[in-house]
């Protein structure tokens, strides 16, 4: 009986050890499978942008990807920058339905902080900051407790095993950090979906020459970015740089407008942007000589309007002849 009891104890110890090893193996295998799931979901989000011109919002993530849950059967954390998701970022774009918020955006307001410790304070020694993030996907990992949160557009990623990191849903529940997190920057997403060049650009590339004593009119249209909506018409903010060439052009008889109405004239000294569908340069001058005018125009989309110093600049050359 004693020998049998000893054998049973040894058998129990071996079984417990084997079970522990098996659990560790399963968890590690689950983590690797979760990483593969995230990679697949990232590809699905790229396809979603290619088809729908924007990222799915949070409620539509599950129907937009192949794996809405990780290998531990828990829902993935998903966060898309509000500028890029299919709610059209709250821009109130009216009847403008064909706006590509990914290709039209030059930046996002989302950052990933790669932390060096549990404090992860707002200084260079405690974290590395990655800006212009398009979206983030995260799993709660082996402990199945999601510790990745969005804090006003900042998403912290801690070293594996960091102690006492709070749960996403229960701040009193603190465990070692083992979340599996991945993300994509706006630049990478724009590249993968085939966005070309700058987010805002002038459709007109060159200007016809002006001739002395002859009526002149040209419209400079803009596309891309996140435009303002005037019904079904896309509008942008325009401003003319206050420089010598622009001022001389006005003196010589041509003027800038932000619509077809001659009353809507753009002033080179204006401090604010005037909204319109295009910039029109028009007039009839008897003062032209054989010369070239450098015309610098500033354009601002809806995403930039909160900052007068945030705009796209384009310089045109207008050749004038006698």
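Sequence proposed for the structure above (322 residues):
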């Amino acid at each position: 009986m004693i020998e049998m009891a000893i054998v049973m104890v040894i058998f129990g110890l071996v079984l417990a050890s084997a079970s522990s090893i098996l659990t560790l193996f399963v968890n590690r295998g689950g983590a690797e499978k979760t990483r593969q799931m995230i990679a697949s979901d990232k590809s699905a989000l790229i396809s979603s942008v290619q088809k729908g011109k924007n990222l799915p919002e949070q409620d539509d993530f599950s129907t937009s990807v192949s794996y809405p849950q990780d290998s531990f059967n828990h829902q993935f954390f998903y966060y898309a920058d509000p500028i890029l998701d299919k709610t059209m970022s709250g821009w109130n774009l009216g009847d403008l339905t064909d706006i590509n918020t990914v290709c039209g955006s030059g930046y996002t307001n989302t950052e990933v902080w790669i932390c060096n410790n549990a404090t992860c304070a707002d200084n260079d020694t405690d974290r590395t900051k990655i800006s212009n993030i398009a979206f983030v996907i995260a799993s709660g990992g082996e402990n199945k407790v999601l510790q990745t949160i969005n804090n006003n557009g900042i998403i912290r990623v801690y070293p594996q095993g960091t102690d006492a990191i709070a749960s996403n849903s229960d701040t009193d529940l603190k465990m070692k950090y083992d979340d599996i997190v991945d993300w994509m920057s706006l630049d990478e997403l724009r590249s993968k979906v085939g966005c070309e060049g700058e987010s805002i650009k002038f459709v007109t590339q060159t200007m016809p020459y002006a001739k002395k004593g002859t009526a002149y009119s040209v419209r400079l249209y803009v596309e891309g970015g996140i435009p303002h909506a005037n019904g079904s018409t896309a509008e942008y903010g325009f401003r003319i740089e206050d420089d010598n060439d622009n001022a001389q052009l006005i003196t010589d008889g041509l003027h800038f407008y932000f619509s077809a109405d001659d009353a809507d004239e753009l002033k080179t000294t204006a401090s604010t942007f005037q909204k319109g569908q295009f910039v029109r340069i028009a007039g009839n001058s008897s003062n032209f000589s054989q010369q070239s005018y450098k015309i610098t125009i500033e354009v601002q989309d809806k995403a930039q309007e909160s900052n007068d110093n945030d705009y796209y600049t384009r310089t045109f050359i207008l050749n004038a002849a006698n």
